[in-house]
Amino acid sequence: MIRFFCYDNIIPLCKEMTMRLFSLCFLLILSFPGKAMPDEPPAPAVPEYDLSVTFDIPASRITGLATMYVQGDREIVFTHGSLVVLEVTLNNRKIDLEAHDDILRIKPAESGSLAIRYEGVFKGNGMSRERNDSAEQSVINAKGISLSGIWYPQPKTLCRYRLAVTLPQGYDALSEADSTEKHEKGDSREFLFHFDHPIEGVDLVASNRFEVVHDRMSDIDLYAYFFPEDRELAGNYLLQAKKYIEAYEKLLTKYPYKRFSIAENFLSSGYSRPTFTLLGQDSIQPSLLSGTSFGHEILRQWLGNSVFIDLDKGNWAEGLIAYLADCLYEKQNGRAWECRKKQLVNYDTYVNPENEISLREFTKVTGRVSQVVGYSKGAMVFHMLKDLVGDEQFFSALRGFISRNQYQRASWDDIKSAFVKQSGKDLTPFFTQWVDGRGLPDISLANASVKRSGDAFEISFDILQNGKNYVLDLPIVVTSIQGNTKKEKLSLDAEKRTFKISTDFEPLDMLVDGDYDVARKLTEPETPPIIAKLLSDEPIIVLPVSNQEAYKTIITALQERGAQGKKAAGLKDSEIKVSSLVILGDDNPLVSRLFGKAESGTAGFSIAARKNPWNEQKVVGIVNVRSAEEAEAALPKLAHDGNYSVLAYDEGRNVSKKIEESQRGIEIELRQPATAIDLSTIRTLSNVIEDAAGKKIVYVGEFHDRFSHHTVELEVIKDLYKKDPKLAVGMEMFQRPFQKTLDNYIKGAIDEREFLKATEYFKRWGFDYNLYKPILDFARGEKIPVVALNLRSEIIEKVSKGGIDSLSEDERKEIPLQMDFSDDEYRDRIKEVFEQHKSSGERDFAFFYQSQVLWDETMAMSIDEYLRKNPDRRMIVIAGGGHVSYGSGIPKRAFRRNGFPYAIILNDGELDKDIAHYLVFPQPLDGVTSPKLMATFREEDGKVIFMDFAKDSPAKNAGLKKGDVLVTLDGAAVHDVPDIKLALFFRHKGDIVKVGVIRKRFLLGEKDMEFEVQL
Questions:
Q1: Superfamily of domain 935-1014
Q2: Is the pLDDT of residue 39 over 50?
Q3: pLDDT tens digits, residue range 320-358?
Q4: Cβ-contact 162, 151 below 8 angstroms
Q5: Nearest Cα to 937, choosing from 883, 997, 990, 889?
Q6: CATH class for domain 686-920?
Q7: Quick one: pLDDT at residue 330?
Q8: H or E element: which one contains 540?
Q9: 335 burial level (CB within 10 Å; 0-12, 13-18, 19+)
Q10: Computed from CA positions of residues 517, 519, 520, 521, in that sequence, does the dihedral angle turn out positive or negative?
Q11: What is the pLDDT of residues 409-463, one digit of tens each?
């Protein structure tokens, strides 16, 4: 990461900068340090700081002399950090020190030459401080010298620096300079670095391993200081440097210095300084040139290294560099929108209302939040500024800003002034909103509709702001099915506004801010699950069930970040719902509980981030490791690669990475294309059955109360049975605990009445059994196994009210271990049904969704269990259309378990893409149903009580009244409403049944009564 340093001016800068005699004076000062110059000129507008240093490399020691002309009675402040100040003199006279901590304050009694002798030891175990608190290491050892920050008494002001360095023979050195001199002196070398411009400080890099390559571009000297093993890369770096400098000179201004160098550092850290960039040896690789990182280094020569940052008023440079080096670079590849989306994903990952800061408050990177605000939000703000003033005005304003502020500190106010001057616009509201304000706008759309208006179509919709109101220009694109588009920008300045757009084509959909031109919070469908979001949270660690030793490093690292470990078995659904999770091992039971199953990777270390299916604001990471060594090698890489959803490493080397797809922009579907059928392709049910015959599983979806649908089902069963009698029929209508009863009935061991009573058919399903009787009769006649697919209704109902957490231990034993809650389209369809049928405030969608998934997963499990036990059989599955449409309910869940090919035949389905393999539209068909008493009942304390009667009710006509307690039907006891349905199923219309009741009489008490009712 590149960092740069800035400080407040302590000595005011005059309007004209007077220059002292340069080369000769510099050499004289170095030759006679500490002696006042004769006829000393007045102090220059920008202080001149002369620094001479020598080294004892084996001892990691630096010895230095710093001299500066100072004005009497004007205090000057130095930071000396861990340096030892040996002596301070003014005009060769020793003065007393006033040192507090690492600050040296000097208020000279007279003007003249101030000299500070000092020494310091840098073994690499201390971190240099100040200039930007960069935490760059200053090191002196046999590998080389790398000094930044406080390696000399650091004045808190811009200065012109002149540096003399004495090193052993064989060393080359690099510092901020427009020109350098090298002199051989016996067994040592002296380097003189000349720099005409004020800067915030100097750095020094030296090594006896450098191989220096020189090139030239116009009037700029280019150098590469590379180690021998990387020498062959120097030419490519210099060539790329030329391309970047040329590009930025066209975009901005002439390169600000006479020299640019690329130096290789033996430390892993790197940074950019005026006239050079220092790159850690581990980052000197061809891949650095293929992206934008190297462009950052060079662009910083203009922004930050020649126009400095007034940190008191905020850091503008990081966002501007990120925008110019990243997003404009990607514009050449047509991927600028992806770059901007990435900035907003970063913001979503790390910033929230509790920790957000404004751009004005951002001064330097102190953590992820500050980095994201400074870089990502900053880049977006400059993009919006460019959109506001236009491309030409934007770059003209930048050129003016650089020219007016070069070699000075500049602030956001200077940025604003440059753009106001160039554009002539009042930009105060823009800068107040985006630079001084915290957070990002939260936008949503609602109530979209389309209506025909003469020859045009009128689209109406609301745009809402949640929370703080911003003034925004939102780009909108409306698209037709033919690809026609209409683009508009809509101004939003309130919590809610209704907009109308007219088009001369039928609109298909509308995309709001699809190119991410506005800094805003992303909507949930736009946000991909990424590993960084997982690591930025305090996730629950779901402990592994195998290979525990391999995961110890990961567990320890996460616990140090505040995470806590739990076993999958002890994890409640309520905890899952509010947490991000790191699941260790894809054999972990929680993987099956949430996603059905996970695919094992072959890499030594892999991690896949997925949205928590119970809370899409949270992330679940599934981690697999082969060994502890693989975990230790890969773990440090995650912070750098965290913007991906899936990562895999072998021995710490990345072998694959991927970002999961997410929605682009805020997308609203306005209309669906008209569905059409080629009537010449219409086929019969027989053709469909012929096509489906080769599948292991055939699903037939029904509306439960339509005889025509059950007739289709029976025809499918009969035809497939003819082709292959090794057939089974799976039925949603029967529940798993009653499988034995079902088997006995098919075998002929029990009769129909006992079968219906023992399976509690009329209690648990309720639809007239005449609808299904032909199917069961055929299965019984041909001894075709019928499989009860469904879960006990009591469990489904309990989960719909209180979630899976509400189940007892015994009830949990009945539910599948493997469940997938991550199908978003399925979830959306379920939610639509829920919204249409829920009573206000009565139910929780999360629980309802759990119950539906549980329902489908149980049926999928039942299918899989049967086919695994009976591998020679195929199955026809009869279920409601909602359980098989789009494959989301049962089919894909069974396929996940066994991979068996399947076909979906849907009765009277909508003509919608991918809803099924075959749609069947049978003619309506009436059927004989069981007779009814045409009365309603309530069950109370084990009694069945008449509540009301329909018009022309035979029961009412026979003399029965409200409040009568139904006791018997044809002598058979009645305990509940299913007993009534069972008794009537075996009667026919016109039959006479005897109805025994108890009637309460006023004053006379209860009376047993019997009535004959003609059905």
A1: PDZ domain (2.30.42.10)
A2: no
A3: 999 998 877 777 777 899 999 999 999 999 999 999 999
A4: no
A5: 997
A6: alpha beta
A7: 72
A8: strand 540-542
A9: middle
A10: positive
A11: 999 999 999 999 999 999 999 999 999 999 999 999 999 999 998 889 999 999 9
Strand 48-56, strand 160-168: pairing? parallel
Supply the pTM of this predicted model.
0.83
- Is CATH 3.40.50.10740 what the domain over 1-207 is classified as, yes or no? no
Q: What are phi and psi of 480, to 5 degrees?
A: -100, 170
Q: Is the pLDDT of residue 28 over 80?
A: no
341 vs 518: CA distance, rounded Å: 10
- Give Dmax over CA atoms of the chain in angstroms: 135
Kind of pairing, strands 605-612 and 564-566? unpaired
Radius of gyration in angstroms for the set of CA atoms belonging to the chain, rounded to a whole number: 40
CA–CA distance from 642 to each of 346, 368, 530, 532, 654 (Å)? Answer: 10, 12, 7, 4, 12
Token pair 């996940």: residue: 896
| Interatomic CA distance for residues 901 and 891, integer angstroms | 9
pLDDT digits (tens, 9 = 90+) for 355-381: 999 999 999 999 999 999 999 999 999
Q: What torsion do the CA atoms of 278, 284, 287, 292 make, to the nearest 10 degrees?
A: 0
Q: What DSSP designation does 180 have?
A: E
Q: Minimal CA–CA distance to 618: which of 519, 741, 533?
A: 533
Structure tokens at 535: 């690591």
Query: Among residues 448, 684, 646, which one has the least CA distance to residue 529?
Result: 646
Tokens of 379: 């880049």
Question: Check: CATH 2.60.40 for 534-658?
Answer: no
Residue 898 tokens, joined: 């066994």
The residue ranges of every structural domain in the chain are: 1-207, 308-436, 443-525, 534-658, 686-920, 935-1014
Interval 519-575: pLDDT, tens: 999 999 999 999 999 988 889 999 999 999 999 999 999 998 889 999 998 899 889
Q: What is the CATH number of domain 308-436?
A: 1.10.390.10
Whole-number Å distance between alpha carbons of 260 and 939: 91
pLDDT digits (tens, 9 = 90+) for 781-836: 999 999 999 999 999 999 999 999 999 999 999 999 999 999 989 999 998 888 87
Q: Are 960 and 937 in contact (CB under 8 A)?
A: no
CATH code linked to domain 443-525: 2.60.40.1840
User: How does DSSP assign 248-285, residue by residue?
Assistant: HHHHS-S-SSSEEEEEEESSS--EEETTEEEEEGGG-S
Structure confidence at residue 11 as a pLDDT band (50, 70, 90): very low
Q: How far is it, in rounded angstroms, from Cα 246 to Cα 248?
A: 6
As a whole number, the mean pLDDT across the chain is 89
Contact between residue 541 and residue 566 where contact means Cβ atoms under 8 Å apart: yes
Let me know if 816 is exposed, middle or buried by CB neighbors in 10 A (0-12, 13-18, 19+).
Answer: buried
Q: How far is CA 686 from CA 586, 727, 905, 924, in A?
A: 44, 18, 12, 18
Output the six-digit token pair for 855: 């329902």
| CB-based burial, 758-789: b 16+ in 10 Å, e otherwise | ebbbbebbeebbebbbbbbeebbeeebbbbbb
Q: Which residues, in sequence order, are CB contacts of 748 under 8 Å at separation 6+?
A: 780
CA 836 to chain centre: 31
Q: Pull the structure tokens for residue 563.
A: 């995470």
* Residue entry with tokens 């039971």: 589
Q: Which two tokens stand for residue 684?
A: 């019969």
787: tokens are 């499989």
3-class DSSP state for residue 460?
strand
Question: Residues near 298 by Cβ (< 8 Å), separated by ≥ 6?
Answer: 241, 244, 245, 248, 260, 277
